[in-house]
Amino acid sequence: MLIVAVICLVAIALASFRYVSKQEHRFIDRLEETPLSSFVFLNPEGDTLRFEPGQTTVILFWATWSGRSLGSLYDLYNWHDSYPQFRVISAYVKDAPEFAKAHDRPYKDRFVLVDGTQAYQDLRVPGVPTAIVLDEEGAVRSTDVGTQTVPVWHELSTREQLQTGGGD
């Protein structure tokens, strides 16, 4: 009976891993197939904002009820302080605006807090935190689902240093 239990646990673990992997691939496929201008974000006051290409943008889907999300959000804050030339869309999901506003950065250029629940659901994002880096034309440059040792937006600062000759 113990052997059967172990086999079942292994089978469940493998099936779960395979499901998560498929979910992430489907999300990336939907993201690449859908023009981001079709996704609607709402600012905390309820006004509609649409994605506009023109500069490199980081979109972070996060939630106040996720400790990992908040960790990613605050890492993004610190990173953006050093690289304010990049636009950041801080998209909270499935959360009350008053909770999200407590984590806002008012008066920061190129950093916008929005309700990202609708876009999150339309894309069927597999979880929070999820980060998307878009180039100037709005094409997907890279994505992160979940937390990573080095968040995806840090690759922008590395490229920036290489382009400007910094980091030598």
Question: Helices, strands, pairings?
Answer:
Elements lengths: L1 H32 L6 E3 L5 E3 L6 E6 L4 H16 L4 E6 L4 H5 L9 E5 L1 H7 L6 E5 L5 E6 L8 H11 L4
Protein architecture, described:
With 168 residues, the protein is of the alpha/beta class. The protein has helices at 2-33, 67-82, 97-101, 117-123, 154-164, and strands at 40-42, 48-50, 57-62, 87-92, 111-115, 130-134, 140-145. The strands form two sheets. A five-stranded mixed beta sheet has the order 5-4-3-6-7, with helices on both faces. It has a two-stranded antiparallel ribbon with strand order 1-2. The radius of gyration is 18 Å and the shape is globular. The model has no long low-confidence stretch (mean pLDDT 84).
* Helix/strand order, N-terminal first: HEEEHEHEHEEH
Shape label: globular
Q: What is the assembly state of the chains in this entry?
A: single chain
Strand coverage percent: 15-25%
Structural class, from secondary structure content?
alpha/beta
Total E-strand runs: 7
Number of helices: 5
Q: What's the short version?
A:
42% of the residues lie in helices and 20% in strands. It has 5 helices and 7 strands. It has helices at 2-33, 67-82, 97-101, 117-123, 154-164; strands spanning 40-42, 48-50, 57-62, 87-92, 111-115, 130-134, 140-145.
Features:
single chain, 168 residues, alpha/beta, 5-stranded mixed beta sheet, 5 helices
